[in-house]
Design a protein that fits this description.
This protein is of the alpha+beta class and 68 residues long. It has one domain (2-58). The chain has two helices and two strands; from the N terminus they run αββα. It has a two-stranded antiparallel sheet. The protein is elongated, with a radius of gyration of 13 Å. The N and C termini lie far apart (27 Å).
C-alpha cells in the first residue's frame, strides 16, 4: 500500500509544471528543469519551484534538496 499512496501523493505535482518546465518522476525522485533563455524563464521556474514546495509541504512530503 505504501508505494501506491506515494504515487497518489506525487502524481498531481506534474500539473504544477507548465510553460517550458519539465518534471521527471521516477520512483521516489522528481527532477524539474527548463532551458533558461531570459528573465521570464527564470521567474517562471522560480514560481513553479515555489508552488512545488508549497504542495510538498501541504502533503507532508519531505524534500531532500541536497540529493543530486
Amino acid at each position: 500500500m505504501g508505494p501506491f499512496l506515494f504515487i497518489v501523493f506525487i502524481n498531481h505535482l506534474v500539473e504544477i509544471c507548465t510553460d517550458n518546465i519539465i518534471l521527471f518522476l521516477f520512483a521516489d525522485d522528481a527532477k524539474m528543469y527548463c532551458h533558461i533563455k531570459d528573465i521570464i524563464d527564470n521567474n517562471s521556474l522560480q514560481t513553479r519551484t515555489d508552488e512545488f514546495v508549497k504542495q510538498t509541504d501541504k502533503w507532508q512530503l519531505k524534500l531532500n534538496i541536497g540529493k543530486h
